[in-house]
């Protein structure tokens, strides 16, 4: 994805469009030749004072070769737009729209935004030619920044998942061992595949779901927990072979892994055997609608339910979570039989197993309570109308348990502050890129198409392109600070106006404004110094004898001269001593 920022795409499109018009105008009038002519005139004047015209012409040719050659390279790579390297605003806007659709935003509203931008700012939907050098630098930097942001998100997701697993307090060592194996064999490999999914569209990972390990995206995406169908493979929508239970663990658990295929035989006529274990989908849910492991019905309990059974009673008995369903809290703290009897008598279900399944389904937040509460949907367990709301309340209460489990609950407390900052941050980045593009059309010709000028612009643009990564890191640091300052806060209403709050706001201002400003300043200074060193080095190569010379060449020559002088003195002294010793007067 090129960008998440509409404003950046729009302003960059306007900037490149203006840039192309200016450069084509200068090119059409052949004004770009003026700096080249001035370079050659300057070199001719510099060599005119030489008494040996032959030597002078050689020096002038060397200067022109370097100076004019570098300028021509700058023109072709970093100044003149090329039809083979284009900026594609329509494609980038579509990427943002598709990303927003996956986040349940209105695609029609997004399309209207770009249409309004086209009308009000003159943004073209056509591809805009840009110089190939900037095309490579900008796109490669964008790709690197996006990948780093994705890695940071995955590290945060994985950290949150491990924190959730740690907070569950699974006392049964057998369940804990199975959960650990599932994480290492299914969850983490699925993370890696999700990260490298390429062009296959996959939904967004939910960080508010109690099922961190069995994330619904992993359960439904072909080639993660679940096997791909032939149609998935034909459509190019398969991420690979399904992730499965380890053979060693399956055999320890009494799950059949070896199957005889009587329809296939080896060269000696013996039936071939194959090894297969349940997919992660079957392991987690115990459902048999996966195409991977169908030779034998998977009859073991799903790890999702097993894990919940091991932690639900302990979690539901915590009084500080609220009292939305007092009876549920009370009976959940008792033994399982009393708890199931209470659900049967209050919810009107037919048997205890159904009551248990219903409660687990509510707790895992899989949407069953929504079907029960919807009058247009069938009633799957025959519950009376008067008890439907009680179930919905119970499911909502269990959602609070999910908040309790979630290690990232504090990350959303100041989301309103971050959302208020985002438009301003996006405008800053878009304005920096836009301004640099506008000036580049003029400054490169004025500077004589020097490599130093290109480096200055490149460092500035790189700094602007890396700002989203800095702000992304800042948001993660913000979350960490929230956990430290407000460990017990659930929403903004719990916060008070205090010195702690003021310190937090100052820290936010530093993260989102002062640090990026210092970073941009450092990038600009680095570009300036690098450009100076490059110019001096090129100057020294083109004319080692020029007054002032190259910094690099001068330093090297001085070092060699100094060491040579010392060596000569040493040799001379040794020779004098030898002569005096063996040839006395």
UniProtKB/TrEMBL annotation:
Residues passing through the membrane, by range: 24-44, 65-81, 424-446, 458-477, 497-515
Ranges for domain TraG N-terminal Proteobacteria: 37-540
UniProt KW keywords: Membrane, Transmembrane, Transmembrane helix
Endpoints of the signal sequence: none
Protein name: TraG N-terminal Proteobacteria domain-containing protein
InterPro entries: TraG_N_Proteobacteria
Domain of life: Bacteria
Residues forming coiled coils: none
Presence of keyword Isomerase: no
Pfam families referenced in this protein's UniProt entry, alphabetically: TraG_N
